[in-house]
Amino acid sequence: MNESISLIGTWKVESHLEYIIVAIICALGIRIILSILQSIENSLYRLPIKAPNRLLKAFWYTFRGYPPCENNYTQCKDSNTPCDKNRFKFCQLKFCGDYWQAFALGILELCTFPILMRTENWYFIGAWIGFKVLGNWEGWKKSRQLVNRFLIGTGLILVVSLLIMVDYVSLIDP
Fold this sequence. Notes:
The protein is built from six helices and four strands. The protein has helices spanning 16-45, 54-64, 85-92, 101-118, 122-140, 144-163; strands at 11-13, 69-70, 75-76, 169-171. The strands form two sheets. The chain has a two-stranded antiparallel ribbon with strand order 1-4. It has a two-stranded antiparallel ribbon with strand order 2-3. A hairpin with a 4-residue loop joins strand 2 and strand 3. The radius of gyration is 20 Å and the shape is elongated.
C-alpha cells in the first residue's frame, strides 16, 4: 500500500480558473442528473396524476432549489395568492428545497477530492463521506429514495473527480 503524500507544498493546479470552471460545470451536470431522478419521484408520488406537465413542474421545483410554497405551505413562493390545490398538495408532501447548498458542496468536493486523490490521501475522502452519512442517517430511515440519490450523487462526484478533475492536479517533485 502506498503512503500518502503531504498535502502542503506537494501539488499544484496549472490553471486555477479553468479548474474551478470545470468543477462548476461538472457540479451543474450532477445537479441536473439528481434533479431528474428526484423529479421522477416527485411527479409520480407527490403531484396529482392529472396535473399538466407534472414531470416538468417537478423538475423545475427540484432544480431551482426552493419549494413552491412558503409560510407554512399556504402562500405560493412566486405570488401573494394562496396556493392552488396542485401546488398545495406538492408542498404538503414535504418537498424541501436545498437552496443550492448541495451544489456548493459539490463544487467544494470537486475541487478538493482530486487533490486528495492525486496525493493519495484517500482516508480524508472516506472520512468526509462517513461524516455525510452520519448527518443523513435519520432521514434515510424514512425514504430509500434519499439513500439512492445520495449514493448516486456521491458516486458521480467520485467518478468525475477521478476521471476528469484529477488531471488538472500535478505533483511537485521534491
